[in-house]
């Protein structure tokens, strides 16, 4: 296993985790906003 390959995989894993967290946070904020609008 080469060091460059491992670092490349690490960067991909971190990027995927970051993208997933951003998507989940934006979806949570969107759903909360819609619930607020519905109540009002």
What does this molecule look like?
This protein has 40 residues and is mostly helical. 92% of the residues lie in helices and 0% in strands. It contains one helix and no strands. The radius of gyration is 17 Å and the shape is rod-shaped. The relative contact order is 0.09. Keywords: Membrane, Transmembrane, Transmembrane helix. The chain crosses the membrane at residues 6-30.
- Give helix and strand order, one letter per element, not per position: H
Number of helices: 1
How many strands, which pairing sense, and closed or not: the largest β-sheet?
none
Number of strands: 0
State the helicity in percent bands: over 70%
User: What is the 3D form?
Assistant: rod-shaped
Calculate the mean pLDDT score and round it: 89
Quaternary status: single chain
Task: Work out the radius of gyration.
Answer: 17 Å
Gap from first CA to last CA: 58 Å
- Low-confidence parts lasting 5 or more residues at pLDDT below 50? none
Strand percentage lies at under 5%
Outline the fold blueprint.
Elements: H1 3-39
Please give a quick description of this structure.
The chain is mainly alpha-helical.
Descriptive labels:
about 40 residues, mainly alpha, about 0% strand, rod-shaped
């Amino acid at each position: 296993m080469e060091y460059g390959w491992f670092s490349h995989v690490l960067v991909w894993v971190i990027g995927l985790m970051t993208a997933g967290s951003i998507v989940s946070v934006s979806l949570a904020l969107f759903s909360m906003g819609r619930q607020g609008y519905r109540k009002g």
